[in-house]
Structure formats: C-alpha cells, structure tokens
Amino acid sequence: MNIEDYRSFCLSLKGSKESMPFDDKVLVFSVGGKMFSLTNNIESFDLINVKCEPAQAVELRERFNSVIPGYHMNKKYWNSVEMDNSISDEQIKEWIKTSYNIIVSKLPMKVRKELGLE
C-alpha cells in the first residue's frame, strides 16, 4: 500500500474525512470528529496508527512483529503498524476498517444518523 492508496481507502469509508493534521508530515482521518487512522510521516510512510480493542491489541502484537503499542497517541489501545512486507495490504485495510468501526460504534446515535451511518 502506498500513501495515495491509504488516503483513498480511508476516504472511501462512509462519513470519513481527512482532518487537520498536526503538521505537514501527518495524515489524519476521522469520522464524527474522532480519529480512526493516522500516519506520522507521509514522506517515508513507514507507520500507520490504528485503534483496537484491548484483547485485539495483545493478539496483534503477539502475532506480528511489526505491530507495536502506539503510546505516542497518549491513549490506550492504539497500534502502530510498521509498513513492511510481513503485513499484506488487505490486513492493513482490515485493521483500518476495524479502527473505523470501533470509533463509529462509540459515536452518539445523533451523530451516526447525521453521517448516514444508521
């Protein structure tokens, strides 16, 4: 997956948008104002950060050497996925979609209806 494929995939998810980045090296994607995916360096595109449930976080880190805790997010249960050949594009898309679904499930019903997610 390259940076444009990543951008296109994130924007293809219903109600998602590219949010204001922290700086010019970061891409942030959100739904209902809540982040579901971001990358810290669009020049080298070496990390994608995704949210997951606690049990999934542990399982992913045990199965994949390229998944590390995203403590830099200052929130629990974010994973940093290193972009290397050990993880397929399909797996990365699945993790982004899971992160998106977690965020959507926690949005207030009113927001979900406004975004056409209900």
Structure description:
This protein has 118 residues and is of the alpha+beta class. 37% of the residues lie in helices and 24% in strands. It has one domain (3-114): Aspartate Aminotransferase, domain 1 (Alpha-Beta Complex), CATH 3.90.1150.30. The chain contains four helices and six strands, in the order αββββαββαα. A six-stranded antiparallel sheet has the order 1-2-3-4-6-5. A hairpin with an 8-residue loop joins strand 5 and strand 6. The longest helix has 18 residues, at 89-106.
Summary keywords:
118 residues; Aspartate Aminotransferase, domain 1; alpha+beta
Percent in helix: 25-40%
Unreliable stretches covering 5 or more consecutive residues: none
Helix run count: 4
Q: What structural category do the secondary elements indicate? A: alpha+beta
What is the percentage of strand-forming residues?
15-25%
Give the rounded overall mean pLDDT: 86
The radius of gyration is: 14 Å
Cross-sheet strand order for the largest sheet: 1-2-3-4-6-5
Could you describe the largest sheet, including whether it forms a barrel?
6 strands, antiparallel
Shape: globular
Using the coordinates shown, work out and report the CATH topology.
Aspartate Aminotransferase, domain 1
The structural domain count equals: 1
Q: Total strand count, please?
A: 6
N-C termini distance: 30 Å
Q: What is the CATH class? A: Alpha Beta
**Order of helix and strand elements from N to C terminus:** HEEEEHEEHH
Second CATH tier, the architecture: Alpha-Beta Complex
